[in-house]
Amino acid sequence: MSAGIPAARISQRISAIAESATLAVDAKAKALKAAGRPVIGFGAGEPDFPTPDYIVKAAVEAAGQPKYHRYSPAAGLPELKQAIADKTFRDSGYKVDASQVMVTNGGKQAVYNTFATLVDPGDEVIIPTPFWTTYPEAIRLAGGVPVEVFAGPEQGYLVTVEQLEAAVTDKTKILLFVSPSNPTGAVYSAEQVAEIGKWAAAKGLWVVTDEIYEHLTYDGVPFTSIATAAPELGDKVVILNGVAKTYAMTGWRVGWMIGPADVIKAATNLQSHATSNVSNIMQIAALAAVSGPLTAVDEMKVAFDRRRKAIVAGLNAIEGVECPTPTGAFYVYADVRGLLGKEFPTSNGTARPSTSAELASLILDEVEVAIVPGEAFGPSGFVRLSYALGDDDLAEGVRRLQEFLGQAK
Asked: β-strands 382-386, 369-370: how paired?
């Protein structure tokens, strides 16, 4: 190192990571609320329901048992791994052995572990876009190259095999597949899932499929696991999942990955050095969740469905906003390109946002409504709103948006 030139304090690898946009928006909204501002937060994908009592009770009881005060296997408690294998067969018809399951500290660690295990520097991973903000960062951390394939509202935010085919190169190793989708709420039909899975198998690609919203579909639209729909994939599929969304357990931090034995063994080696085992207390709570009934999510879905219809109707009433009706998860992904470049009155005069990021910032500053701009998930021109918040807050937030955005000139 030359004299007078200080070494970089932060590594280039970590410096290149973008902050989670969804968590950043949520944190800013909560900070403003704590300061006494009447902020409505549509940012974080977090059910407003409490975790079911029987799950909490299981955790409390586990905390009193000394055997759970000690280290446990890095890949997860055997009884939880078996329960996850059983639950996967129950919900997806996909048969796996408990040895093919690894329990992780939330779904995000499952994402990170998977790409760290499968990706070598320069490997390309096809990502249907709009995508969840964490995927490309986890891929880049592993040395991989995310390749975005964009599907807009005119095609229901669903990519086609033709689009995927056009994105393949000799460096492509993995297709990331997510249905139901975060951020769009789009759900692929069983026929589309099978077609994409068979295409990936014919190309010799791995498929990493995030199924954390599997139980949140509406209008009679079924969830279809690509692992089941395309058995041709054989042992080149990894399933990511967790308890956060189905059981209102976002803060409990329990996820998992399911894959072939060699991949799970390698990922377990990584986790043994990174975090070791997930908290035993949290694992017992997850055991109660996945072994129990789906009554809680069925009850939540009634509220989510009601809010879904209300927010779609409310947003579509705003000139310049087009909001397709999602059939999964608890998000809407609205097209706001019709508002960009328009003039809005502000407390300091006027503003003319040219990107969805500028529009989202303006909305937060002027009417104290927090939404996530499309730049977090792909191209500008869109915004994501979570409707996993109370009915009153949702109605008030939409009212503020209608009043403010309706002033565009």
From this structure: unpaired
The rounded radius of gyration (Å) of the Cα atoms in the chain is 22
Tokens 């994939």 belong to which residue? 233
Long-range contacts for 273-276 (Cβ within 8 Å, ≥24 apart)? 274/109, 275/105, 275/109, 276/71, 276/74
- Residue 281 phi, psi (nearest 5): -65, -45
Distance CA 137, CA 361 (A): 23
Looking at residue 20, its pLDDT comes to 75
* Rounded mean pLDDT for each run of 10 residues along the chain, 409 residues in total: 64 84 74 85 89 97 98 98 98 97 98 98 98 96 97 96 98 98 97 98 98 97 98 98 96 98 98 97 98 93 97 98 97 98 93 94 93 94 95 96 96
Sequence letter at residue 89: F
Tokens 């879904």 -> residue: 308
The CA angle 228-262-256, to the nearest 5 degrees, is 60
Could you tell me the two tokens for 288?
């109660």
What is the side-by-side strand order in the sheet with 145-150?
101-104, 255-258, 237-242, 206-210, 172-178, 124-129, 145-150
Distance of CA 222 to the CA centre of its chain: 19
Q: CA 120, 121, 124, 130 torsion: positive or negative?
A: positive
Q: What is this structure's pTM?
A: 0.94
Give the three-class secondary structure for 143.
Answer: coil
Residues 6+ apart with CB under 8 A from 180: 186, 187, 213, 214, 216, 217, 223, 326, 327, 328, 329
Helix 21-34, helix 356-367: angle, nearest 10? 10
Q: Closest Cα partner for 44 from 372, 382, 295, 293?
A: 372
- Asked whether the CA dihedral 141, 147, 152, 157 is positive or negative, the reply is negative
pLDDT for res 151: 97
Please spell the DSSP secondary structure of 317-340, one letter per residue.
TSTT-B-----BTTEEEEE-TTTT
List, as one string, the DSSP characters of 62-131.
HHT-GGGGS---TT--HHHHHHHHHHHHHHH-----GGGEEEESHHHHHHHHHHHHH--TT-EEEEEES-
Q: Is 332 left (phi over 0), alpha (psi -120 to 50) or beta?
A: beta
Q: List Cα–Cα distances, 89 to 95, 96, 150, 257, 298, in angstroms.
A: 5, 7, 32, 14, 19
Of 101, 164, 86, nearest to 128 by C-alpha is 164
